Amino acid sequence: MATRVYTLSQVTQHKSKKDCWLVINGRVLNVTKFLEEHPGGEEVLIEAAGKDASKDFEVIGHSKAAQKLLLKYQVGVLEGYTVQDGDSKEVGYKEAKSNEMSAFLIKDDSTPNYAAVLEFFVPFLVAGSYFCYRCLTRTAQITI
């Protein structure tokens, strides 16, 4: 097992298709050779490259075999973490963590605020314009 210690800024330098590193549970992984084999597609790994992908890895619910692959692609440990040997995913943080609660929020709404306003008012504007046109052309026909 590699015992080299990397900082997150060092890992962030490896975020291309030809050089893809990421962090899972304190383990620094070089997954460049695994990109084509990844069942979820290489795009998922490239999107997480250079970052701590621990939460994403846990949310998906990978199999034991996938968790054992972490050892195969591990090139080191993230600074501040100690990784235990074996197939366990146990990772301890050296510094004492505070007893604060934390939350992971996913916000899917990426549309800007003005787009919502436009989506609401544009149909009314089009309908109003149509009715005004119909009223104006109808009175023109009657007066002739």
From TrEMBL:
Residues 3-79 form the Cytochrome b5 heme-binding domain. It is found in: Membrane. Signal peptide: none annotated. GO terms for molecular function: heme binding; metal ion binding. One of its GO terms (cellular component) is membrane. Keywords: Heme, Iron, Membrane, Metal-binding, Transmembrane. The keyword Electron transport does not apply. Belongs to the cytochrome b5 family. This is Cytochrome b5 heme-binding domain-containing protein. It comes from Carya illinoinensis.
